[in-house]
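re: ur question from the group chat, yeah i did fold both. here u go
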Amino acid sequence: MTTDSQAPVPFVDLGLQHRRIADEVSAAITAVTDSCAFVLGPPVDAFERQFAEYCGVRHCIGVGNGTDALELVLRASGVGPGDEVIVPANTFVATAEAVVRAGATLALADCGEDYLLDPVAVARAITPRTRAVFAVHLYGQLAPMKALRDVCGDDVLLLEDAAQSQGATQDSRRAGAFGLAAGTSFYPGKNLGAYGDAGAVMTDSDDVAHAVRQLRNHGGVRKYEHTLIGTNSRLDGIQAAVLSIKLARLDAWNAERVAAAARYDELLAGVDGVVRPTVAAGNEHVWHLYVVRVAHRDAVAAALQAAGIGAGVHYPAPVHLLPAFAGLGLGDAGAFPVAERLAGEILSLPMFPGITAGQQERVVAALRAALS
């Protein structure tokens, strides 16, 4: 018989979250199917209003996924061929993909020891062709937005990749409310996750919002009226209904993540060889991921997996070292030393609403054993 102290600890437990809201979700899905509001329609309109209000912005536009959201942020902001866009070297591939898909030129800047985009590195990376900076709110806390705005000035657009930061704040403002526009992902594992792919663009700009509404729907807001070359990236009614239900619980679930992060901090305080994450001044972290740093990371991760601990790595290679971007002139090994060093040390521990103290104690015990 497997005791609780021997039970595997998943990296994320989406089933636990679903069981809390299963009856409500079932009723909402039935309402969508009964009304046949399968693509856009009233459920999407309702969620867009709710999430815009939550983020403190004028507009939320639901789209098919987070990668599309980032691309449409760029295109709706007038960024395209001939423009450079700076993104962090240590980000998920989608941020870089969006720049290339929009036809712009990808450029990179290094991060700081806190994993966040370094404003000094951004200032060095800006050229006369730089049109925008994509600030990535990584792991659940916001990039240094005031410093980045100062660096961007009036000539460079400041945009946000808020895929990992639903509910996070900086100086009491929500992620998505700082730049000209922001893209986010509602992939199931996010703090606010759908039951499939989904995403959104947030903005205070009426012009950007109108452009995104056209671009997501084949270039027009009305059937057979196509004023732009768009795409098919529409949020569906079932996903919107699920997201509305989850949004009502997001702050409470984020509070559970905050409590779990504090517990990890306590449990890891006496463990040699572990660098714990930090929270930047002014930030309220929502702990999409709890990322530590260790030597011999791959061996430690393998030992945790063997012990039934669902650890992960976010991300094992900086953008310029990914084969997909070879030949773009982004830089060879050594070009972004902080991001490259951290990529070999970072280790994401299990983190999800409802993770128990016992589960976290098991994680830390296994980590301690792997380091010994």
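okk and heres the other one u asked abt
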Amino acid sequence: MGKGGMGAVYKAVDLHLTYTVALKQTLTRDEALWKQFEREAHLLAQLNHPVLPRVSDYFTEANRAFFVMQFIDGPDLAEIITQRPEPLPPNIVVAWADQLLDALIYLHARERQIIHRDIKPHNLKVTPTGRIVLLDFGLAKSQSPDTSTPATCTSVFGYTPRYAPLEQIQDLGTSPQSDIYALGATLYHLLTGTKPPDAVSRAAALVGSKPNPLRPANEVNRAIGVELAAILNRAMAQNPDERYASAAEFREVLRGVGRSSKPIVLRSSGHQFAVLPSMAGSDDTTTIGGKDEIVWRRGLSPGASAAVVIILILAFAVFCRYYTWKLPPAPDNDENSVPAAAGQTAHANQMSATSEGRHTKQPRPRTRDRGQATP
């Protein structure tokens, strides 16, 4: 399914329980990396969050280490943005960010705080139900939230240049603010369709009194508001202290921008449609992919909606007919009309008889009245 610097991932079948799993294998014989691989398996096995994959087993065989984890169907965001000629809609990206920040709140608030340290489009998958999933904890580290205590965590040095903060690239130590930077850089790429400049290039430009290579997102993509661009700019601040203090604060600010109820259909080669559940906001629809895709709105199905429309039309027709029956008959000015003294006309008798089952207030003519009304 995929291959990286430390391992490869295969789609496999658990023969004992007969269900599809993802099997991750190390591509090194280095025992130190084996230990990190084992730590990753133990780390994920302790987690329980809808945005994070579950791990069910770890083993070694033929000088290789493996662990078994939940199979996540669907394309990753790197595939999606590669196949699109334009950036993703802002409301969709903000909805994904909300899910990811909920996972970061969960990771950063644990007794042994977990820093992912490798958030990027390649490590984010969208499931057929529209849920975003954060993968690859190979660079993650677990540490005490108390920064005053000596560091006791063990992690592998590594980073992805376009999405890693300066402190991670320079190996100065990472914190929850490092994940906030990486997520901000990832959102910038999704919203603008342009990879952000790496933190080293930005620092070099600052030292050399050159323009900041990181252009505001709203200048790259006019569909992005100034407020959202400012939020991304703060999340990607070079100084960790200038970023959001926590993932919770980052999420709260993004929620203030507003989210949409647009369902979204994603299509990537070899994958089924992925529908994003609607959020609070407008009810229009955005489709990502080919012209033949169908978007089913959240709520009533198309058949049910048609039935409701037909019922409303029938109800209106019945009301109009009932209202017509309630009107008194128009006066007959014809010279040959029946005198008023003759009583009820045959037309009035017919109307009264037809209205009998509708609880009208018109009195039902008696037999003798019908006889008197005959000329």
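fwiw on the second one: The first strand starts at residue 2 and ends at 3. The CA atoms of residues 204 and 210 lie 8 Å apart. idk if thats what u expected
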